[in-house]
Amino acid sequence: MIVKPLTPGFGAEVSGIDLCVPLSADQITRLIKVIDDFAVVVFPDQPLTDDQHVAFAESLGPLENEAAVVSVEKQRLAHSRMIDISNLDVDGSILAADDRRRMFNLGNLLWHSDSSFKSTPALYSMLHGRVIPPDGGDTQFADMRGAWDQLSDDLKLQLEPYVCDHSLIYSRALLGFDAFTEKEMQAFAPQPQKLVRRHPGSKRKCLFLSSHIGVVHGLPRPEGMVLIRELIEHATQKEFIYSHKWKVNDLVLWDNRCTMHRARPFNDKKYQRDMRRMTLQDSASTLDQP
User: Fold this and answer.
1) Is residue 89 domain-resident?
2) Which of 8, 79, 137, 144 is such that its CA lies 20 to 30 A from the CA of 219?
């Protein structure tokens, strides 16, 4: 296993490892240490099948039970817990410009942390590139530990007690999307999470930010949302960013506890993009973690 840092202390490329076959206990232990150190890990040239992708995810921890997507009549992918990050319909055609799924998925262009809107948020996400458009469609990652470190001591003291409500309803409202069914509104009900958390592997504190935040407890909503906007602007400065340009069969794994990410646009009305994500569940709500 060869580890090559992509930026100073944030993001690494790992080679010399084949994710198509089961990893040894020693490999898993070392890999988790790399994730703890760098938060974003790129595995180039991994021609995984869906089954192999699922098996690799399961080797690192428990999977999320349900995918947070708008309901559709038929899923394109065979595995119910695999997230379809594509612009494709079940027949392989490109989604219509006004398709409800496309409108909902535009939320991936906003800075976010996966499943922060669930009572137990996400641990790791791992996205596999099957079909890549010729231009655009990069994924950017932001270092929430580095962003925390650069805040003033006074601001750190102010932020530590805050709890925020997260919901897909809040993030999609930023785009003007409100076409939720009653069942989806119930499923996406706001969930409270700490604004500041301690990353267990590195013992470093970090911001837990996301476009899914719509309320800061104890603050009038406009004041709370201004604070979140200011923090996201701080945390997404160039010095905290790694931008990944995809190649076919790249697998990128990131730690949602100490990163944010967003997709970048591409011509999704002309070019296909087939990306598939597995997501691991964290141990508990941030409110119940040390």
Assistant:
1) yes
2) 144
Quick check: is 134 in a domain?
yes
Domains in the chain: how many in total? 1
What confidence tier does 70 reach under pLDDT thresholds 50, 70, 90?
Answer: low
Is residue 50, in this structure, part of any structural domain at all?
yes
Contacts of 43 (CB under 8 A, 6+ apart): 13, 14, 15, 17, 19, 250, 251, 252, 253
What pLDDT is stored for residue 66 in this prediction?
Answer: 75
pTM of the model: 0.95
Is there a domain that residue 289 lies in?
A: no
- The CATH number of residue 58's host domain is 3.60.130.10
- Over the stretch 137-169, which tens digit does the pLDDT of each residue have? 999 999 999 999 999 999 999 999 999 999 999
